[in-house]
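chain below, 334 aa
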Amino acid sequence: MSKEVLVTGGGGYIGSTIVSALEDAGHMPIVLDSLVNGRAELARGLPFYRGDIADPDIVSAVFEDHPNIGCAIHCAALAIVPDSVNRPYDYYRNNVAGSMELFKTLAEHGCGDIIFSSSASVYGATGGVMVTEESRVSPESPYARTKLMTEMMLEDMSASFGLRSLALRYFNPIGADPMMRSGQVQREASQIVAVLVEVASGKRDVFRVTGTEWPTRDGTGIRDYVHVWDLALAHARAVDRMDGIFADGAGFEIVNLGTGTGVTVREMVSAFERVHGSEISKVDAPPRPGDVAGAYASADKAMRLLGWKPTLTLEEAFAHAIEWAGIADANGLG
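prediction:
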């Protein structure tokens, strides 16, 4: 059944890809984005509202125009770990306080389903092991703490307001929409594949392998890299399955979204070089502020609740990211 779905941060990398997946699934996305990091062009003619998630007036205006919105996917956030160490106030104000106001306004307008973009960074320094939704959380950066705090707040507000809420903990999205409707658009690349593409294209001199003494098989951080299109499909699947997930009424669930396979930074660089066809310039460097050894996901719960598992490969993600980078540069989005 087709639904109207509000997507906050729908002009950003992940949000815009989710918008495309919703469209493909027959839903109508409505985009709200402040454009601090997002781009209005990625809304592609869909209903678009520019504003802050914490502003009840702009959120209310969305519902005045689209009173049938029953589900919101909340992607809007500041999301760069080292930046959060330098600007913690901005991260707590935007990610936590802003989300609190958004959830309240959504509830007031009868939007009973919320899907929250959380992060695997809440697991902290796990030593590169597999984590489940029951694993101990220990966020080690202001960014990660904002995600955990927002999860806790959403759980409490769901109980109070009668919401059905799903927190999806992402494990390192990479790649681009295979149909090239969206991809990485951050003005200053920080995501690993975007940085690799910049080095390969000559926009950046060298790739820095940050952290080489972690307790992993080659000393570099280990991550679970999931193709952003697979991630987007999980959200579309979640929209369709909220009735089944919350058959007993209001509630709160946490679901990991990852591949179940850990890849180290050195392995990541080698795989990129194979797809690119040549080596890139790289150098070992100290860890960045807020960095951790990393982890990879158990995706069992995602399969059980969403009927979802990733299908696209690491190499496909690289190929799509490289193709998108050329399109973004040509259209002034890079």
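The CA atoms of residues 18 and 265 lie 26 Å apart. The domain at 4-184+221-260+293-330 is CATH 3.40.50.720 (Rossmann fold).
thats it, cya
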